[in-house]
């Protein structure tokens, strides 16, 4: 995924794209970015970084202004980690866009 995304972003010739960093959770250890996108797209409870509280902390704490988490909500809520309680907090404050609502907005079938 990292190689594919880096290749795609290299094709876009923009100064802003030069500021983009695509990496793993471990690659962001000790770094911060204005906005982070966290991919948790596996549909099982075994998303690697979720099983290690330190790695989950890195994934959740690198964003200065905004963090977007992409994944299937139901399996993420069943994960054996601290992520379900974090997602519940975001859901309670209307900071979660679930698949059904997203499909209505962007007309995905």
SSE blueprint and pairings:
Blueprint: H1 2-11, E1 33-40, H2 53-61, E2 63-71, H3 73-77, H4 83-92, H5 99-106
Parallel strand pairs: 1-2
Overall pLDDT level: 78
Q: Class by helix and strand content?
A: alpha+beta
Report the sheet with the most strands, covering strand number, pairing sense and barrel closure: 2 strands, parallel
Q: How many strands?
A: 2
- Percent helix, as a range, is 25-40%
The fraction of residues in strands falls at 15-25%
Order of strands across the widest beta sheet?
1-2
As residue ranges, the low-confidence spans are: none
* Contiguous helical run count: 5
Span of the ends, CA to CA: 24 Å
The best one-word shape is globular
- What is the rounded Rg? 15 Å
User: What's the order of the H and E elements?
Assistant: HEHEHHH
A few lines on this structure:
This protein is 39% helix and 16% strand.
Describe this structure in words.
The structure is a single chain. With about 110 residues, the chain is an alpha+beta fold. It contains 5 helices and 2 strands; from the N terminus they run αβαβααα. The protein has helices at about 1-10, 55-60, 75, 85-90, 100-105; strands at about 35-40, 65-70. A two-stranded parallel sheet has the order 1-2. Strand 1 (about 35-40), helix 2 and strand 2 form a beta-alpha-beta unit. The longest helix is centred in the N-terminal third of the chain and has 10 residues, at about 1-10. It is globular. The model has no long low-confidence stretch (mean pLDDT about 80).
């Amino acid at each position: 995924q990292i190689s594919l995304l880096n290749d795609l972003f290299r094709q876009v010739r923009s100064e802003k794209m030069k500021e983009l960093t695509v990496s793993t959770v471990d690659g962001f250890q000790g770094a911060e970015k204005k906005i982070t996108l966290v991919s948790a797209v596996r549909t099982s409870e075994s998303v690697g970084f979720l099983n290690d509280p330190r790695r989950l902390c890195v994934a959740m704490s690198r964003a200065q202004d905004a963090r977007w988490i992409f994944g299937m909500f139901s399996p993420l809520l069943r994960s054996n980690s601290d992520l379900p309680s974090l997602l519940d907090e975001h859901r309670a404050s209307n900071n979660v866009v679930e698949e059904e609502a997203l499909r209505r907005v962007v007309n995905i079938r």
